[in-house]
Amino acid sequence: MSPTRPRPLARLLRPLAILAVAWLALSWWVVLVLRFVPPWTSAVMMERRLGALVHGERDFQLRHHWVPWDEMAPSVPLAMVAGEDQKFPFHHGFDFDSIQDAMDDADDGKRLRGASTISQQTAKNLFLWNGRSFVRKGLEAYFTVLIELTWPKQRILEVYANIAELGDGVYGVGAASEAYFHTVPARLGPAQAARLAAVLPSPRRLHADRPSAYVQRRTDWIQRQMGQLGGPGYLQGRAPARTGRR
User: Fold this and answer.
1) 17, 78, 209, 220: least CB-packed within 10 angstroms?
2) Which CATH number fits domain 39-236: 2.40.50.140, 2.40.10.10, 1.10.3810.10, 3.10.129.10?
3) pLDDT tens-digit series, residues 157-194
């Protein structure tokens, strides 16, 4: 009696399953390493550099350098939370209320607005590319879960502050502080930190060093929110005050 040969489908699924497990293990290992090691670049930075090469932007210069948490003024991460994701200290990577609100607005025909948390933006900026495809959003959710399970909240904010795009070719609070305010992040005041956070929705169109009326209004709003949140202690999850967003 001849041995039973594996079916073609089984022969195909086995290597695919091995590849899937290997990819899951590798991706988690990378996230684990980056909990302790500063990332020297990000996927979004590499995408921007490649785009500059493709489009022949000879004068393009990418500016970025890592700044540890304790070398940032406390107002820097607070301003980013106040402007981008006020529930950050308390959620687990996803703000489902904001997601539902965005879906309701879309159903009502209103302008589509973002509902990504700082954790999601960190996952996208660090590992993925810009775009709105379902594949990217699915990978973003996957890496967001990995990051939230592996990193403390302070590490997420530290990485986000270091890789967020704050101007065309300007990434992270270290490069932005030098480019726009000619100082180091430890010496940024609340108004300067709020102005950096104010350009995050569209850093290639908005300018921290040449603030438009919109950027100035948003800066003022972020500063008020920083006060209402109760200061840097809010980032440690202390009693949340009344907030104006999310």
Assistant:
1) 17
2) 1.10.3810.10
3) 999 999 999 999 999 999 999 999 999 999 999 999 99
